[in-house]
Design a protein that fits this description.
alpha/beta, Rossmann fold, Molybdenum Cofactor Biosythetic Enzyme, Chain A, 2 domains, 11 helices, 22% strand
Length: 394
């Protein structure tokens, strides 16, 4: 059974975010890190003592691909652990993958808050909410590419129906009865107004995607500092584990740079590929690794991909990673026995710069498969090589 044991805190955490996926956990915290919040991502049962020193803790319960009941149990345990936070947030996917309603209600019950304010929009990434229905680039999300997601196919864009199917009453206005109130959002200004209205409400659970997290960060009073800094990186491994078409197109944009791209399949001999990547790093500073476009078993290929990546890291071939896909990143961290990340800042909306502390300090840029500009990998390389600043803190 999933459990979460929060360490005895020397001071209360100001903000606790509970999310279902590792990239969501990092990108949700990044906007706050931009504004001088000390932000930490912790994973599942390993809520480490480093959470004691953070203003914001984002808890990844890794529930998106679990069963509904497993997801509820995990969120319930995390919710009881973070109930003391001044502000509790349920972050979910802006395309409604996963157990959006069930997990939001589980967190509401576990933290004993009065109502969930639900704002799923992320306009900067093309995700809008109109009439309590979710759209991606103007297309109903269940008619978009996310309907064919190999692990979490989206079947409906009706957010109100998702909650009503859980047996709860959804308020039509703020004054109505109902433990859930859904708010539309078509612009970043809409989300900023929502965040300004509700950020001080400790009796509520605020629920939404990265768009709401960024809006809450914008209206927070912590400061306007440009996040913490890391030293420049020389050898960078780009890891594309996401099946999303946008990630594949972004990888193709690296071709003019002559970056070597390795493709792993179910038949790839892992040790040989890891050695080949290591040899490539002796003559170059950037290597990319990806999976076949349509693997028969995405989870198995992600595991094999993480095996190669962990081997390359353990051999000290790289000092920075760029990773797409929450499942891929989770598998890599599992291989490295790493349970937390420090979030430093954003390089694009929803794309954070982080530091992986274990087994050694490694700079990390991670993103959800569908996020980012066409040249995001080039921008990531520029960021990793151009950042100047103080040495990594332990």
């Amino acid at each position: 059974m999933y459990s979460a044991d929060w360490p005895t805190a020397s001071r209360p955490v100001k903000i606790a975010i509970v999310t279902d996926d590792l990239t969501s956990a990092t990108d949700g915290a990044a906007g706050f890190a931009e504004r001088a919040w000390s932000a930490r991502v912790v994973r599942g049962t390993s809520l480490s003592a480093s959470a004691n020193t953070a203003d914001l803790v984002s808890v990844d319960v890794a529930s998106r691909t679990r069963t509904r009941q497993q997801a509820i149990s995990r969120v319930d345990a995390a919710g009881m652990a973070v109930a003391h936070a001044a502000l509790v947030i349920k972050q979910f996917d802006s395309t409604l993958r996963g157990h959006v309603a069930a997990e939001t209600l589980a967190l509401l019950r576990a933290t004993k808050r009065r109502r969930a304010i639900v704002a799923p929009a992320f306009p900067a990434a093309g995700r809008t909410t109109i009439g309590a229905r979710q759209f991606v680039d103007g297309i109903p999300v269940h008619e978009s590419a996310y309907a064919a997601d190999p692990l979490n196919p989206v079947r409906s864009n009706d957010i109100r129906a998702l909650f009503e199917q859980e047996g709860v009453e959804v308020a039509r206005s703020e004054a109505d009865r109902g433990c859930v109130f859904i708010l539309d959002g078509q612009t970043e200004a809409d989300l900023t107004a929502i965040a300004s209205r509700y950020i001080g409400r400790s009796d509520l659970v605020l629920a939404g995607s990265t768009g709401l997290m960024r809006a809450l960060a914008r209206v927070s009073e912590q400061g306007s500092h440009r996040g913490s800094t890391v030293p420049p990186s020389r050898r960078v491994l780009i890891v594309v584990g996401s099946m999303n078409v946008r990630s594949r197109e972004q990888l193709a944009a690296l071709q003019p740079t002559a970056t070597p791209i390795f493709t792993i399949t179910a038949d790839t001999e892992l040790a040989s590929m890891a050695d080949a990547i290591g040899k490539q790093f002796r003559s170059g500073d950037v290597v990319a690794i990806t999976t076949s476009a349509a693997p028969a078993d995405p989870r198995q290929v992600a595991q094999r991909l993480s095996h190669v990546v962990a081997h390359v890291i353990e051999k000290a071939f790289v000092d920075a990673l760029v990773v797409t896909g929450g499942d891929t990143l989770a598998e890599i961290l599992d291989r490295l026995a790493s349970d937390s990340l420090r979030v430093c800042r954003e390089i694009e909306p929803g794309i954070p710069l982080c530091v992986l502390d274990q087994p050694r300090a490694i700079t990390l840029i991670t993103k959800a498969g569908g996020f980012g500009s066409a040249d995001i990998f080039l921008k990531a390389l520029h960021t990793l090589r151009g950042v100047q600043g103080k040495e990594l803190a332990s």
